[in-house]
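User: structure tokens for this one?
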Amino acid sequence: MATTIAISNQKGGVAKTTTCLSLGACLAEIGQSVLLIDLDPQANLTLSLGLRPEELRRTVGEALLGNTSLVSVSRESPVFDLDIVPANQELVVLDKILYGRKGYEFHLKNGLDAMGEGFYDVVLIDCPPSFGTLTLNALTAADLLIIPIQCEYYAAHSLRQIVELVKLVREKTNPRLIYRVLVTMYDRRNKICQVILEQMQRGLSRVLFKTIIEVDTKLRESPAFGQPITLYAPKTRGAQQYRALAEELMNHERQRP
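Assistant:
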């Protein structure tokens, strides 16, 4: 079965979508077959691969409603072995529709289970920056939650919120869910960043990725060209760091029982 990874933080602007796109491309680069699922009504992941959400008729919403399969609404990306299930603003309405349905938390998991084995090695889910039915579907379906976080004053508060959410999901819908924390947008010139990183390394050593994603303007530019960093600027620091993250993640998965 594919390893399913949700990428979520209730605080916006932490490189959540950038991480989903870049990590997915790096995993595909090392031979993994990857499916990206855009669950954010802003559809930034969809936009980042050059698709126009407003022109799409078949999106992840259709699959969550049970009208079609995830495979049938998936699209190939410019990267070999990297596909995407796109989104558009209709997810705003869908979030409310799902809430009224029995077992709404399991719609995405059921869709992934229906794909069966052999389609993808890894599924990466870009969650909205809020807690609702879409995020709950992602966490119910996921084996692992990656929490991107910046080294800033409010980081600890947002992290506490999402860890509490993980505990709730474990109790209610997905007892196997684990989480790991990824430092993103790190500025080594900023002394406060250095101090907070040291605190994280002491207090979160068991769940903190060793890889650190630093500030890189090319990471911000690449979505405007509809390409992940591995195509847009493959030799940059950002590309190398996301490759290191992909390797660290795969090594971690191999060591899991």
